[in-house]
Specification:
Shape: globular
Number of strands: 13
Strand order of the largest sheet: 1-9-6-11-4-3-2
Number of domains: 1
Radius of gyration: 26 Å
CATH superfamily: q2cbj1_9rhob like domain
CATH architecture: Sandwich
Strand content: 25-35%
Length: 240
């Protein structure tokens, strides 16, 4: 039951709120963060990482002047990608010597999807994989990877405090239409890996790095999709 009250404001005494007499109440804020961004970290066994490191150096020496297998990722020539061309017949993971690494990153990706991302996945497809060689003075602007579910970077040759750490930027997935309150302050987080570390994250998350201070910051990056996407409109991926 709703009671209707009629107030005669003409009979009320006029009043003025003075902040000199009564300060406005302070805003007390409590923030609870839920569902944080989850970056998976895995370590390649020492007995394999040294062999893989030598193999990557050999590939860089062999193909550094071969534009069929290498390409500049910036205008200054500080960052070179190897085996990143879309028209290559041979994938980096098909290169002799990558068998153990190929199997390992697949198992890590399946573990991340199942136990960190929280989905059911029996097998994955590595849809792209390439080597990055960044020299002193190089950087890579924040970017993300479309048409992929999980992305990863393995650090082949990396010295903390000398090579640039990987920076992640706060990402927002926007649909259309959407409302915007204008530019908000950007938030970033650096992860300082070690040589032999693999980082995995959801592909929409922005990442990059600035101010690389030493030559030969070498890493392997790749994109991952589950082999089978479930549901009534699900499908199975077959890599040619």
């Amino acid at each position: 039951m709703i009671n209707n009250h009629i107030y005669d404001y003409g009979m009320a005494s006029p009043f003025i709120i003075s902040y000199q007499d009564s300060d406005p109440p302070q805003v007390e804020r409590t923030v609870t963060e839920i569902f944080p961004v989850k970056i998976g970290s895995y370590n390649f066994p020492c007995k394999h990482k040294t062999r893989l490191k030598h193999l990557c150096f050999d590939i860089i020496d062999k193909y550094k002047n071969n534009r069929d297998y290498s390409c500049q990722n910036d205008d200054n020539g500080y960052l070179t990608h190897y085996f990143d061309q879309k028209d290559l017949v041979q994938s980096l993971l098909d290169y002799p010597g990558f068998e153990t690494f190929n199997s390992w990153i697949k198992r890590c990706s399946i573990d991340y999807i199942n136990n960190t991302f929280g989905c059911d996945c029996d097998n994955v497809v590595i849809v792209q994989c390439w080597i990055n060689d960044c020299s002193k003075g190089g950087s890579q602007p924040l970017h993300n990877h479309m048409n992929s579910l999980i992305s990863g970077t393995y650090f082949v040759n990396y010295t903390p405090e000398m090579h640039a750490p990987l920076t992640f930027g706060e990402s927002t997935i926007m649909g259309t239409p959407y409302l915007s309150l204008g530019h908000t302050r950007d938030r970033f987080a650096n992860i300082e890996p070690y040589e032999g570390t693999l980082l995995l994250w959801e592909s929409h998350i922005k990442h990059g790095y600035q101010s690389n201070n030493t030559d030969k910051r070498i890493s392997i990056s790749f994109n991952v999709m589950p082999e089978t996407l479930p549901g009534i409109y699900g499908f199975k991926l077959i890599k040619k």
